[in-house]
Amino acid sequence: MSNPSLLILPGDGIGPEVMAEVRRVIDWFGDKRGLKFDVSEDLVGGSAYDAHGTPLTDETMAKAQEVDAVLLGAVGGPKYDVLDFSVKPERGLLRLRKEMDLYANLRPAQCFDALADFSSLKKDVVAGLDIVIVRELTSGIYFGEPRGIIEEGNERVGINTQRYTESEIDRVARSAFELAMRRGKKLCSMEKANVMESGILWREVVTEVGKEYPEVELSHMYADAGAMQLCRWPKQFDVIVTDNLFGDLLSDAAAMLTGSLGMLPSASLGAPMANGRPKALYEPVHGSAPDIAGQGKANPIACILSFAMALRYSFDKGDEATRLEQAIENVLAKGYRTADLLGEEGKQPVSTSEMGTAILEALDESL
Length: 367
Ligand code: IPM
Ligand code: MG
What we know:
Elements: E1 5-11, H1 15-33, E2 38-41, H2 46-52, H3 58-66, E3 69-74, H4 89-99, E4 104-110, H5 123-126, E5 130-136, E6 148-152, E7 155-159, H6 166-182, E8 186-191, H7 197-210, E9 217-222, H8 223-232, E10 239-242, H9 244-257, E11 265-272, E12 278-284, H10 301-313, H11 318-333, H12 352-365
Parallel strand pairs: 1-2, 1-3, 3-12, 5-10, 8-9, 8-10
Antiparallel strand pairs: 4-5, 4-11, 6-7, 11-12
Helix pairs in contact: 1-10, 1-12, 6-7, 8-9, 10-11, 11-12
Residues 90, 93-94, 248 line the site of 3-isopropylmalic acid.
């Protein structure tokens, strides 16, 4: 049988340097655990625009459709701010999500013990936090029509449309319930049914799907109240399911509870392919951080944890994923910190590649 295939899209900014560390980890699993992958690499975002005049070529799109999983670094940067909207780096990422139909975006927010002091919230509020936000990723206001900027009378009007079909809500709700079944069996759905019809429908469909999962304790919250509760006492949640835009906001807020965006991975999953695996793209929640790009300061952990999620969700290697997560936990416990995890303490941070090396050593110790 041929090896499982991985398409790596490092992207822009710190993307390439964090991805370089992921490649070392992938090689480690090949050498030490016999887990070989057929890895290919390509361009996305601003780097693709520089080379081809588009943030994602049709060839790269076609490759992404064929592989078992895509691993993406980050896209964007100030250099590309002047570009027309249609060729901005972000469009490459949004095209991948849309055309691969990756409707369920899993964004865990997990607080590593060694970093509990680092959160802007009190330690007892975040210590041991382990929640997952399931964000709908291919519909809603990000893609709804009509959209655009039109002339009306003597001024311009910016238009975007929030739009959800029942089937779109149904399928992401199912992903969230399935995940809740494998975790704490608690699901909170967030919308704004008090002001939006799409929210009313969202609540109805989620409730309906919930009847098929009687073991899961389902609750509903308005998304603004949800944001407040996330900051007040996040440990009340296990799995949260929400739409594309609310999910974008709530996942950034949840991420910050854990201390650093540099720690958080994500998985974007679609329908199962012929081989039974879901179409999948894995990426860190953080962006391209152009201010520190190319300086060896970036934290590679979010991207490495994204590969751990790939091991778990695309390759059925939950044990190996846990091995990798544990190695990272150990490295943090030993005190290794990249600059984003240090605050103003004046301690000397480790570089991106030193963090990678420490993780490889911890992996060796796990054997
Ligand atoms: C995210 C990002 C993207 C989004 C951008 C880069 C298009 O903020 O993945 O959360 O808004 O979805
Ligand atoms: Mg975002």
